[in-house]
């Protein structure tokens, strides 16, 4: 009987009906608690709901009953990755490959986890192994292209992203990365032409828009100056210089602060001096695209204060208008509050010599002063999250389980916020 419930759960699972899948799988565990497949389906549902810790416990149960299912180890590794525990994720991906050395997804996932841990050689080895096993597997080429980009092997990265698009011609992210790799090589004409072609052939309007925005950024990068300073330019020229500095981020050693810092300064300068008349719409669109790309770069460096400042500047110009963008900014501001309380806030600063002084100032704050700074950041985080609700954000389950919002959960406003999201 338990197997029948498992089969029903699998049928409903294919229709992405999480609630019915959960009910059938749960019934199977009640009929036969020793049925591992039922526990694994329960784990999958909790993963889909963003409840990663619950999913981990359920995969533990499934694997204790059947330790020879590679896909379950792989999924447990994905849960660890979602919780930012890359070391345990690598262990589980390795276990998956011990059981099934041909599980392509596990090779990709282990390469990704190793890349995020800074193990570039291990990541490159895994990504290359995927291609050896499946020479037409686009995701393998895309992951190796990502690793090569991190190693600043720009020519190799461009080759891999081109192959990824060749084998999976519907994946917008591969197209985006291919254009980015051409931009990093300063092959601007090729990048612009390809972005235009990809935008026309992609079926999803959202991906076509994203590729169109990337084309505009490449043109900005081409026109921008790497020798200008923020106080020397304004308006569209400042935005072009911002794009040029962002292009340098992909060319210099990973973690280089100088171009990232200048990109922030140029964008803030451009936002403060947007042109009037016909040029304003074009400049506003460029500033919005640059803001989204720069936020992603700042997120990778955990520069949450700079993200919050950038978000405020974009909002003042009316360039933050989507629920998801407001939600993300709420998360980033909450992370800044948490880092402040732990005295671990990373600061980009305007100059390298400023950073040490600012970090010393943070460590010297009294507990009361520290609490005040964190409270101010929490207030701003709730402001962004409430704005997301006003714009239609209704993912209460996701917000309740979102680790980025941990420092807000003890605040009475958090429960009120979740109630609004339902």
Walk me through the structure.
With 422 residues, this protein is mainly alpha-helical. Among the domains are: 172-219, no CATH class; 224-301, no CATH class; 329-422, no CATH class. The chain contains 22 helices and no strands. It has helices at 2-13, 18-31, 36-48, 52-65, 70-82, 86-99, 104-116, 120-133, 138-150, 154-167, 172-184, 188-201, 205-223, 235-249, 257-272, 278-300, 304-316, 323-341, 352-364, 367-390, 396-401, 412-421. The chain starts with a helix and ends with a helix.
Outline of the structure:
With 422 residues, this protein is an all-alpha fold. The protein has 22 helices and no strands.
Rounded mean pLDDT score: 89
- Structural class assignment: mainly alpha
| Low-confidence parts | none
- Major sheet summary line: none
Radius of gyration: 23 Å
Give the helix proportion (percent range): over 70%
Helix and strand run: HHHHHHHHHHHHHHHHHHHHHH
**Helix tally?**
22
Overall 3D shape: globular
């Amino acid at each position: 009987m338990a197997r029948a419930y498992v089969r029903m759960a699998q049928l409903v699972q294919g229709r992405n009906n999480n609630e019915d899948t959960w009910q059938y799988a749960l019934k199977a565990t009640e009929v036969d608690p020793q049925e591992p497949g039922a526990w694994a389906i329960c784990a999958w549902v909790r993963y889909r709901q963003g409840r990663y810790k619950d999913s981990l416990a359920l995969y533990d149960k499934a694997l204790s009953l059947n330790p020879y299912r590679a896909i379950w180890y792989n999924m447990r590794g994905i849960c660890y990755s979602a919780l930012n525990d890359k070391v345990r994720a690598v262990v589980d991906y390795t276990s998956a490959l011990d059981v099934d050395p041909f599980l392509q997804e596990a090779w990709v996932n282990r390469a990704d986890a190793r890349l995020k841990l800074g193990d570039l050689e291990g990541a490159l080895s895994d990504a290359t192994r995927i291609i050896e096993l499946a020479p037409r597997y686009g995701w393998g080429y895309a992951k190796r292209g990502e690793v090569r980009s991190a190693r600043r092997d720009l020519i190799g990265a461009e080759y891999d992203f081109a192959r990824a698009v060749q084998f999976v011609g519907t994946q917008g992210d591969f197209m985006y990365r291919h254009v980015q790799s051409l931009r990093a090589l300063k092959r601007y004409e090729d990048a612009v032409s390809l972005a235009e072609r990809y935008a026309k052939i992609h079926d999803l309007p959202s991906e076509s828009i994203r590729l169109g925005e990337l084309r505009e950024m490449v043109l900005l990068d081409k026109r921008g100056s790497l020798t200008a300073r923020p106080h020397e330019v304004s308006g569209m020229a400042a935005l072009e210089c911002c794009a040029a500095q962002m292009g340098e981020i992909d060319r210099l050693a990973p973690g280089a602060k100088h171009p990232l810092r200048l990109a922030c300064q140029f964008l803030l300068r451009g936002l403060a001096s947007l042109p009037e008349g016909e040029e304003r719409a074009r400049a506003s669109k460029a500033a919005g695209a640059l803001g989204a790309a720069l936020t992603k770069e700042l997120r990778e460096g955990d520069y949450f204060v700079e993200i919050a400042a950038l978000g405020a500047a974009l909002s003042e110009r009316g360039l933050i208008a989507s629920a998801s963008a407001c939600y993300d900014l709420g998360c980033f501001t909450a992370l800044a509050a948490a880092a402040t309380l732990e005295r671990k806030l990373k600061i980009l600063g305007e100059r390298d010599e400023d950073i040490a002084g600012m970090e010393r100032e943070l460590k010297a704050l009294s507990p009361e002063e520290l609490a005040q700074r964190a409270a101010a950041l929490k207030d701003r985080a709730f402001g962004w999250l409430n704005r997301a609700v006003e714009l239609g954000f209704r993912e209460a389950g996701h917000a309740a389980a979102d680790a980025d919002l941990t420092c807000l959960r003890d605040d009475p406003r958090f429960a009120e916020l979740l109630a609004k999201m339902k």
